Amino acid sequence: MADPLLQAxxxxxxxxxxxLFSDLDLLLNAGEVxxxxxxxxxxxxxxxxxxxxxxxxxxxxxxxxGQCIKSRRAEYQMNMHYxxxxxxxxxxxxxxxxxxxxxxLSGQKVGDRVWDVLASVGLxxxxxxxxxxxxxxxxxxxxxxxxxxxxxxxxxxxxxxxxIDKSGVAAIEKLMxxxxxxxxxxxxxxxxxxxxxxxxxxxMLG
Length: 206
What we know:
This protein is α/β, with parallel strands linked by helices. It has helices at residues 44-51, 73-78, 95-105, 113-120, 136-149, 166-181, and strands spanning 6-15, 18-28, 33-37, 59-64, 67-68, 80-83, 154-158, 185-189, 200-204.
């Protein structure tokens, strides 16, 4: 049996002398969507930062394909999309420039496909628009376009529906289902009902 894509064992984390979670185990297999729920301040974003390797303020271990993410950091990062609370774009660049810049960081060329990707997130006609002139929702869509553009095994999404309208929410839910159906996996923090998404498991913090 293949190793899980991502595994966390006996995670312990505290902030300002308050325990956020203790003895927390997580398992993420190909084809799954793991929904992290909990009240504000329960440690959802902190957990995601641990899982992507941005925080060392914890005890326990996080494994990518059975090995510690610290020892396979480069490989792990190349196989993972992380979308945080912020829009995650360079405001002075256009929507197209942002996506080409991101693709270059990943060592890939996207050619003319970048235009189709922006159309997929409802930004047709905004390709050459500097992102600082876009609305919060449009900026968020530029960031979400990365999911359409570069295939990666694991998506880790922190409140991806923020500032997104109803049609955008439906599009993201469909995208998560496709990711799972094609053998990828998703970890997402949201209070959104994901009943339309394929193969969802829930973990409650706090």
